[in-house]
TrEMBL record:
This is L-fuculose phosphate aldolase. It is an enzyme of class 4 (lyase). The keyword S-adenosyl-L-methionine does not apply. GO terms for cellular component: cytosol. Keywords: Lyase, Metal-binding. The lineage of its organism: Bacteria, Pseudomonadati, Planctomycetota, Planctomycetia, Pirellulales. InterPro entries: Aldolase_class_II_sugar_metab, Aldolase_II/adducin_N, Aldolase_II/adducin_N_sf. The gene is fucA_1.
Length: 427
């Protein structure tokens, strides 16, 4: 597919997103794109990353001349060196996200075998020895690491560099790498971390979605409203870091037989109402690919008539519990228990091999569940209800992890739980 977005706009929009996600600082980080003519478009030196405009982007032409009102980033030498070493790379993201910086100063590389998607998206990992920022020596160090086939590289005592065949692909790789790093930091505060073996990764890769294509009728006002709600909350979820661009699925029931769901292989934050896929029985809306979790969503709707929305998500703190055997106890504050009740744990692989069994792990009395090494499932009576529960789940997980750094966690006694059940009519 031809990319019709100008490199200036791609860099500006992507940098805005990275800065808004707090994955870089005002002065840190740089992005570049190599175009088909061999020119390199790159973010400028010494310009506020939180207020970048398209006119700030610099073009370093193939002949070495510079076009722009600012000098190119001081890190341009390593961008140039990576492009020379890897003809397949057309875009580069360099930044200093907190979790990956933590790994860089411990001289470690995060293990992405926490999740099948992160492992797949991040590609081969590497570690580049330290050299002075902006120096030719740093360019040589990083380029040698990329030349060995690496796609995501930790820079010793510096940050991270990732490459991709396009800037959206490089951003997804960068985001997934930081997500894995943040999850590991949190999980290590809980206990021993569980990593996936080759057979587990293959199990996820082999999952297939077998829907036939159909042309749906004209949408009802209810369907149109649900499409808008899903897009609005998907965007909010990404911006609040409850979802990331390559992970998770969100759906809403349209009627007894059909539901809307996020598509496969599309950036979650940028989805429009037209991108969402209508699924009905064994059919899916023609011209679109439904999420590979669509059959799991369908099984939950079939088993639970009161459920009208479902999200599979990967918020960092809750996901940290999913990659350890640490118990996630919601009996911490009344809101947590009232909204979530007892959160069950789903053994790894159930969501790929037995959708009927998966549906037994959630219910009105237990609306959320942990998926081992795959985030969480949250259900609700509406899109808003489901999103609200997802927020409460992640806030509770973060509070519990923070509490472990302070002292011994004191959960609410059974008498308080009984009172909450009575007062809120909880089954």
């Amino acid at each position: 597919m031809r990319n019709l977005v100008h490199p200036r706009d791609e860099i500006m929009q992507t940098m805005d997103r990275i800065y808004r996600y707090r994955m870089t600082t005002t002065s840190g980080g740089n992005l570049s794109i190599r175009d088909n003519e061999g020119n390199v478009w790159i973010s400028p030196a010494r310009v506020d990353k939180g207020n970048l405009t398209r006119d700030d982007i610099v073009c370093v032409r193939a002949d070495g001349t510079v076009d722009g009102k600012h000098p190119p980033s001081s890190e341009f030498p390593f961008h140039r060196a990576i492009y020379a070493a890897r003809p397949d790379i057309q875009s580069i993201v360099h930044a200093h996200p907190v979790a990956l910086v933590a790994f860089s100063i411990c001289r470690q590389t995060p293990n992405t075998r926490l999740f099948h998607q992160a492992h797949n998206v991040c590609g081969k990992l590497g570690f580049a020895p330290y050299a002075c920022p902006g120096s030719e020596a740093l360019g040589e160090s990083i380029a040698q690491t990329f030349a060995s086939g690496c796609d995501s590289v930790i820079l010793e005592n510096h940050g991270v560099v990732v490459g991709g065949e396009s800037l959206p692909r490089a951003f997804e790789r960068f985001e997934a790498f930081e997500f894995a790093g943040k999850t590991l930091v949190k999980a290590n505060q809980l206990g021993s971390v569980r990593f996936l073996q080759d057979k587990h990764l293959q199990q996820a890769a082999d999952r297939a979605v077998d829907f036939e294509s159909f042309d749906p009728p004209a949408p009802t006002p209810n369907e149109q409203e649900l499409r808008k709600q899903l897009c609005d909350f998907l965007r909010r979820g990404c911006r609040q870091r409850l979802l990331i661009s390559t992970e998770g699925s969100f759906s809403a029931r349209v009627d007894k037989k059909s539901f809307l769901i996020t598509p496969s292989q599309k950036d979650r934050e940028l989805l429009t109402v037209e991108d969402l896929v209508l699924v009905s029985g064994d059919g899916r809306e023609s011209g679109k690919l439904a999420s590979r979790a669509a059959r799991a969503h369908q099984a939950i709707y079939a088993a639970h008539p009161a459920v009208n929305a479902i999200v599979f998500a990967h918020p960092v703190n809750a996901t940290a519990f999913s990659v350890t055997d640490s118990t996630f106890d919601v009996r911490t504050i009344p809101e947590s228990y009232v909204f979530l009740r007892d959160v069950k744990r789903v053994p790894y692989g159930v969501q790929y091999r037995d959708y009927t069994e998966l549906a037994t792990y959630v219910s009105e009395a237990s609306p959320a569940a942990m998926l081992e090494n795959d985030g969480v499932i949250v259900t609700g009576r509406s899109v808003l209800d489901t999103f609200d529960r997802l927020e409460v789940l992640e806030s509770t997980a973060e509070a519990v992890i923070n509490a472990k750094a302070i002292g011994e966690i004191q959960t609410m006694p059974e008498a308080v739980i009984d009172e909450l059940r009575r007062e809120f009519n909880l089954s």
